Structures are given as structure tokens and as C-alpha cells.
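Case study 2.
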Amino acid sequence: MGDFGLWTLLPPFVVIFFAIKAKRPTEALLLGCLSAYAIIAYFTGENFKDMTLDAFFKVATDKDNIWILLVCGLFGSLRALLNVSKSTHAIANMIGRYCKDAKSVLLSAWGLGCILFIDDYMNIITISSCLKRLADKMRVPRATMAYIIDSTGAPACVLVPFSTWAVFYAGNFYGQEAVKGLGYESAMSAYMHCAPYMFYASLSLIIVPLFIIGVIPPLGPMKKEYDKMKNVEAVEDDVYNERNTGNIFDFLIPLGVMMLITIFMDDMFLALIGSIVACFVLYIPRKVVEFQEFCELWIKGFEELMPTLVLLLFAFFMKQACADINLPKYVINKCLPFVGANTFPAVAFVLVSILAFVTGDSWGVPAICITIIVPLGAACGANILLTMAAIISGSVFCSHACFYSDATLLTSNCCEIDCMLHAKTQIPYALIAYVITFVIYLTIGVTGIMA
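Prediction:
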């Protein structure tokens, strides 16, 4: 729509300031959107109301946005069905036989997160369903469980070729001539050659066990959560006694169906439908749940995600507002022309992470950045593999740290804590990985190790 100068930076500032100050992320996003369209209307003379309503309608009817909203809602449905079967209690019982203290429970959560790398959504619902009550029993703050789940979601997914993240980014990168020019035989081959340099993802996975065993202590808001737990009574064992547990296969079979459909059809929406159908086939004939209750449960589970879905919708609205005010192009165009080949990957990492964080979009905005940053990197002689890895590292930081990213919202909902609490308690650890990642990219570039 044009260049609005420094006014372009006002909407994201409004969002971050109001969200931190008032702890009201939905209202913060709405104010950010309204301020963006007020700026556009002032400079262009367009009708503020019509432009805002048109943008919201575009967001609300976008196919990809609807897909994400339905997927998140159906995760709520699946969670409700798995809970009523009490199969997650059986999983917790099994893990509880070997995990006798808080550290072993949290290490189990970390291990499961590293194994369930197909999709970060699947990772979130599986671990939270199985282990959050067991963590309660060990007097572990819910914020800690949420941090571990979020830190092993996207970070684990980007490091392997068999994940939704890898498929998405491999396709986007291979559309660039500079990436094709590297000579790799396929998009996935090029992607996997840059995986060792996705330092933020690797560091996030390493920091978690260091935190669990006490090498890195509870910091800031996380320490306050641990202090609160000192006065909390331990949860009694009756939550997980044998009479209160279901059949472990009532969990594993729906999960297996979801994994298989995700692998072979690459569609989490269809995978969730298949998983809910598997629950129906497993539960109804065996009277685990009556037909009427089954229907009520999946609707109720979807409804329980409504606050999260509303927040996601406004996050999509903010992404559209940032696109309309040309925030990504403005920031990139102002910064990258002054960057040399040696510092290019480090600056690309910072730019992508900031833009993705502000918009709450760990896929769409980085995908746009790829079309600008990769050609510029090639033109200035930057290492393309390192640049690719830096872009992905920036997007993972958004997924992990942004208080209104889809992964953060789903994790906080599944762990039954406030999304701002989850964001505040995990941000110190995200920033540790972030700073080290930046230093590594800068060091590699300046020293010319990968020249």
C-alpha cells in the first residue's frame, strides 16, 4: 500500500506494550490491528471502517486460517475423548512405575517430545495428556511442563525430514534459484544439509535437560512458580490407581492413526478426523462411553478451545495488518542493504525472529522473508545454507516464544495455564538459546569457517 515510514513500527509496538502491561493479549492484538489501519487510512485517504472490515473478512475466510482454527478445535475434541477413556491415566501409570521423582517425569516429557517429531501439535497434545497430572503429583509447576512441551515441539520437528515443518520449509526454499544452485538433488536434501546449522532448535532441546537436572536454575517468573509450589500439598495416588485407569490402547491406537495419516497424507486435519473416528470405533462398542455422551464430548472439547481460537483469529488479523502496512518489507529493506556477507546470516536470524514474533506467524511471514532474504544473501555472497538455517531458527523462536503463536496458545490451553504466564516463564530460556544462536551465526560469518 505504500511506505509509511517509522509509523510502520507503531502497531507491533502497541501490541507488545499493551500485552505486557495489561496482560490482555486479545485486546492488545485488536488495538494493534486498529492502529495499523488508522495509519493506512490517514496516509492514503481510504475509509478506515471499510478497510478494517474487508481485512477481517479476508482473514476470517482464508482457507489456511480456517484449517488452523479447525485443527486446534479438533485437538480439543480429541483431548476430551481421550480423557474420558482414562487411557492417559494408564500411560501415566506406566511411566509412573519408572519415574519416581520430578526430574524423571520431566526427562520423560523431554524424551517423548524428541521422539514425537512428526508435528508439533501432536507433540503438545500427547505429552500434556499423558504427563501433566503425573507432574502435578510430583508438585511440578504446570508452567514447567508447558515450557518443556513447547521447547520440544517445533525445535524437534525442524531437525528431521519426516515432519510437517520440514516439508513446508523444504518446498519454500527449493523455489529459490540460489538454493537450487547449490546442486542438491531434491528439496529435502537441501533442507537436511542446512539442518546442522539450525542452532536455535538444537540449543532449545539441549537447554531443557540442563534445566531439569538443575544446571540451569528456575529463572525469573519460573522461580516464582516453583516458590508457589512449596506450599502446595502433593497430589494423592488415587488419581492414578488401577481402578481409575483405562486401556492404554484406547490412547495408542487413535494416536497411531493420527501419525499414519499425517505421514502418508500430510494433513493434520484429516489425521484428527481419523483419530476421532478411531475413538468412536474403539469406545462405543465397548461401552467406554455412550453414543450420546461421545457426541457431546467432542463438541464440548471443541468449545473449550474457543478462547484460544479467538486469540488465534486476532493473531491472524494482526498478521494481515502487518502485511497491509508493509512491515516485513519495510524492516528488511531498511536493514539488509547495510549488511555484509559475513554478518548476513546473523542479521537474517534477528530480522526473521522479530518479524515472526511481532506477527505471531512462524510459517507465513518467514516464507515471505525467504523470497527476499535468500536472493539478497546470494547477491552479497553470504553462505546460503547458513542463511537458510538462520531463517528457520528465527521462525522456531517465534513458535516457541511469542505469546500469541499457535503453539504457545495450544500448549498453555493443554496445560491449563494462562498463555501470558506460559510466555513469561519460558522466555528467559528462549532468550538464552537466542543469544547463543546469534553469537554462533556471527562468529561463523566473521571467522569465515563456512566460506
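The mean pLDDT is 85.
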